[in-house]
């Protein structure tokens, strides 16, 4: 497997306040960093050093504070960040597109046509950065659903899917002009969460411009089988997120601003949940997947140790399946 798949981690892995000398959950991270004296260069250098020490090949950057703007603040430019990655013997495998509008506290809504222009511009600027750093993949997710019995329910139907698909196609076209592929990533409580959602949005988007980033854990927590989904949409897969899960979450779980902290209870490190990893490795082998496996640990307190343990499991239990 190491000959066919390269291994990375999402920066969310390093978002535990405890890792930075504080306490609390991910929502407290920026305050902890500010209290300790926010220094972008120190932030990035610690993460890059630890990713290398964990034995990985690369990283996926994400939302603040580990976003592309803070990387530029740390190293002066995209070229400077690319040089820093190279000095740590790492690559930038991908970047997650946050919908927070730079310089504001407002989040663009892909389900609102009025925000499609600003999202496309944000993606274009981001794609230029990624391409400069020799990364060819941008990951995007969709808005949260509403709670099952909300007073004003949110229906993910053909009409809403078409609106979102129009934006995804436009964004995907713009990033492709920069040499960067757009990949839609599932979130267990979002509008793109399970097998039906994948079928719907893969149908409504153009396969030349919109691809798939399957996340094993997110699909399991949403009640779907990631292997079935990937087998069915194998031609759309351009990057993979590897994470384990303990099983599906209840359908009636309240969905609000705290859901990202709540959902962690169903997640687990690779090899410690219900995902059939040998079958996953065989599937990737059979579809001739050659690319990145991105590990995400959701604010790990001991990320280097945890990532090493995952790599040990992958090398010991899966590598012989896919060489």
Number of domains: 1
Order of helices and strands: EHHEHHEHEHEHEHHEEHEHEH
**CATH class descriptor:** Alpha Beta
Spatial order of strands in the largest sheet:
6-5-4-3-2-1-10-7
By CATH, the topology is TIM Barrel
User: What structural class is derived from the secondary structure elements?
Assistant: alpha/beta
CATH architecture: Alpha-Beta Barrel
Concise account of the structure shown:
The protein is α/β, with parallel strands linked by helices. It has helices at residues 29-35, 40-53, 68-75, 78-87, 116-132, 158-177, 195-204, 216-221, 226-232, 259-262, 277-286, 303-318, and strands spanning 5-10, 58-61, 91-96, 137-140, 181-184, 210-212, 240-242, 244-245, 267-268, 291-295.
Task: Outline the structure in words.
The chain is α/β, with parallel strands linked by helices. The protein has a single domain (5-318), classed as Divalent-metal-dependent TIM barrel enzymes (TIM Barrel). It is 40% helix and 12% strand. It has helices spanning 29-35, 40-53, 68-75, 78-87, 116-132, 158-177, 195-204, 216-221, 226-232, 259-262, 277-286, 303-318, and strands at 5-10, 58-61, 91-96, 137-140, 181-184, 210-212, 240-242, 244-245, 267-268, 291-295. Strand 5 (181-184), helix 7 (195-204) and strand 6 form a beta-alpha-beta unit. The chain starts with a strand and ends in a 5-residue tail after the last helix. 43% of the residues are buried.
């Amino acid at each position: 497997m190491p000959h066919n798949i390269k291994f990375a981690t999402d920066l969310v892995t390093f978002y535990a306040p405890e890792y930075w000398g504080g306490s609390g959950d991910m929502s407290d991270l920026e305050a902890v960093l500010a209290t300790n004296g926010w220094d972008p260069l120190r932030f990035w250098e610690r993460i890059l050093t630890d990713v290398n020490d964990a034995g990985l090949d690369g990283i996926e950057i994400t939302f603040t504070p580990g976003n592309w703007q803070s990387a530029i603040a740390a190293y002066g430019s995209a070229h400077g960040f690319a040089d820093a990655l190279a000095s740590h013997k790492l690559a930038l495998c991908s970047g997650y597109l946050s919908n927070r509008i730079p310089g504001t506290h407002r989040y663009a809504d892909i389900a609102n046509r009025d925000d499609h222009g600003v999202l496309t511009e944000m993606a274009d600027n981001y794609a230029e950065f990624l391409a400069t750093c020799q990364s060819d993949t941008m990951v995007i997710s969709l808005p949260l659903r509403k709670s099952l019995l909300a007073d004003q329910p949110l229906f993910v139907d053909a009409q809403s899917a078409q609106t979102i698909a129009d934006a995804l196609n436009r964004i995907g076209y713009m990033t492709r002009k920069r040499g960067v592929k757009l990949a839609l990533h599932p979130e267990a409580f979002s509008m793109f969460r399970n097998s039906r959602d994948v079928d719907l949005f893969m149908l409504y988007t153009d396969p030349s411009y919109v691809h798939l980033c399957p996340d094993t854990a997110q699909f399991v927590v949403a009640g779907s089988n990631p292997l079935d989904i990937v087998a069915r949409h194998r031609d759309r897969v351009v990057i993979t997120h590897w994470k384990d899960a303990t099983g599906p979450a209840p359908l009636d779980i309240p969905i609000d601003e705290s859901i990202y902290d709540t959902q962690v209870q169903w997640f687990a490190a690779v090899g410690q949940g219900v995902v059939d990893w040998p079958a996953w490795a065989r599937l990737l082998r059979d579809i001739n997947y050659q690319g990145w496996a991105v590990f995400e640990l959701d604010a790990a307190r001991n990320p280097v140790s945890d990532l090493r343990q995952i790599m040990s499991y992958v090398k010991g239990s899966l590598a012989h399946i896919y060489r």
